[in-house]
Design goal:
Layout (H helix, E strand, L loop, with lengths): L5 H5 L4 E2 L2 E2 L1 H10 L6 H9 L5 H12 L7 H11 L3 H5 L2 H8 L14 H4 L1
Antiparallel strand pairs: 1-2
Amino acid sequence: MRYNSWDELKKETPFYDGEWDSDKLKEYLIQSCNQNFHLQIDLYFAQFQSDGGLADLLFEFLLNEDYDGSDCQIGAAYYISRLDRSVLKERKTLVLKAQANEVFWRRPFQTDDYLEWI
């Protein structure tokens, strides 16, 4: 779906009334790769860095072969890397699985520094 402005996209907020909408989340992840919305989406996700539910959904997108090569996986990897470390420690198995991917951009962390805190 194409959005002409941030005002248009933010009406499709993926978190509403305490619940994540995975379809809208997928769209935000796709649009996060669009330079026109990247900053606003960064600010949006910054408020959820400690959200375990978001972490689980991001890993679902990243590790799901149905989305292989899609922008939503690029966005998921990026926002996983920005989650609080405590949330990621609770999902150590998922972090290690994502980091083992042979495709570099599908790894949330581009260096092995994560091994020091995981």
